[in-house]
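Internal ticket #5521
Category: modeling
Description: The requester needs a full-assembly model to guide mutagenesis choices. All entity lines are attached below as received. Residue total reported by intake: 619.
Assigned to: D.W.
Attached entities:
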Amino acid sequence: MISDKVFKIGATVAGTYVLVVVVLIAFQLISESYPIWEKEGLSFITSTDWNAVEGRESFGALPYIIGTLTTSAIAMAIGVPLSIGIAMFISDAPAKIGGPLGFLVELLAAVPSVIYGLWGLFVFRIYFRDWIETPLHNAFGDNIWLFSGNPYGLDIITASVILAIMIIPTVSAVSREIMKAVPQQQKEAAYMLGATKWEMFKLAVFPYSKTGLIGASILGLGRAVGETMAVTMLIGNATGIGAIPSSLFGPSQTMSSIIANEFVEASPASVHMPALIGIGLILLLIAIVINVIAHLLVTKMLKIKEGAINN
Amino acid sequence: MTTIQERRQEYRSLFKQNVERRLLVDKVVRIIVFSCVIIAIIPLGSILVEVFKNGLTAISLEFLTETPGSAGSGEGGIGPAIQGTLIIIGLSSLIGVPIGVMSGIFLSEYGDNKLARSIRFFNDVFMEFPSIILGIFAFLMIVLVLGHFSVWAGAFALSLIMFPIVARTTEESLKMVPMTYREAGTALGLKKWVITFRIVISAAKSGMVTGILLSVSRIGGETAPLIMTILGSSQFFSSMDTPMDALPLRIWRLSLLPYDSAQLQGWGAALVLIMIILGINLGIRYYFMNKKNGFFGQLIKQRRKNTK
């Protein structure tokens, strides 16, 4: 049975590949970003300067961390309620309507990020600027800081709205699965008490699927944090202190977009590249934490057996 | 003092008001929920309409086969980009598919232990890693070591996106094959690897093909990891150790140019890319709609019966 042993070893090695890759990535990012930690220390995370000019180099990642968190937060605020609404509709609709509509929503995930960027840059941005940004700016710009700044379309809010569209397929697909995992008896029990459809959701579906829905949203957050191309094309690409958002209509920069913008120009000999790799390391840590939490919540939810409500 | 009659009347009207209010809330929620679906589909419709409308005017035989002209001239085409995308998809599949399939076999056939559970978990988390980080990783591992941008680095980066998807879908499809198939093989005295390849995989083939095609359509549109690996080029492929072009990269570069003609070419490239990717996605869908009563569909039904 030598051949079976070889087969088993081959399969095990292939299975272990993912662990090796994860460890290697962590090791590479840590060792290659070491110079920047040595030079800047923890102030790499807290400082806001960004200057790659030789002799005056200074690198601080804070603006990009803030940019990533801001765009992701706005994308979540828009995308998650929409996704949950979609999941409610599709999980409850007859298969003949729900199937095709669900498929259309999932097609959104198949559109490549760079095409979202292209569409955002040449189509969406124009409408959004003329119909939403400019009126808001004209009405509230002088009084509310959120709407100050020059509405040009290449800014935080445009990038965030595109991000929101991009996370909808993920969040709605997972939420739908979770809502479908709610035992039929619970829904019927709610109907038997005389509940309307909405009350059925409120009484039977939401309490049961709360954990899973939170997990699904966090999964969407993971997507939003790592998304690169569409954001790079729409966020305005400010650097340094200018990238700290001062209003919804101001340009900014995220961790992934600064890497996409500057990586190829950065020289491996200077500290510029270690700085970008260091940002990659921070991004990876954030993404890992977000995704681990999301997966734990979602798989826990889908594993719960019929019957008990888990609070 | 109110009489019983009057109190009954009052309760009745309260009850009616209450029911009316609840029905109204229900109706409002139904409308909101339905409009969520519409709001999500509008961007999809707009993207498809714009890509087809603008892209079709850009496309010609010359556009599809020639190298890019000078910036802003509106001449030339995206030949190298199409060629590069096909090359990079092929190479990534060459690396990613065998690893993914073997890993899926491990998870399904030997996957009842602690190691497999942690691999499954890491596999799921790894699938959500920001793709730009895989680009940096491939850059550090290959480009920096070799000293030049290389097609291998790009293929390596994309294979990292590919293999976890293939692994998971392979695992899921192998698990759908009933245990009795494997037992029948064992009873015939076959070796386990023969059983796996000859019986189990051939029964689960269509599920695995779906997974592989899904991962192909995913990597076909990836841009971020290509920026720091194959870099982009305006020439046709010459060697593995030089920069190469790919459709997503070309779209990105074209969108940054301040010329209307470049914009139009960007839409043309986007149309080609979206045709490849949506073609694969819709193709899978169509295949499965027709296959519902075929062998694979029967297997799913059977497994549902067995687990009940």
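Resolution: model delivered.
Comment from assignee: Chain A touches chain B through 84 residues (CB under 8 Å).
Ticket closed.
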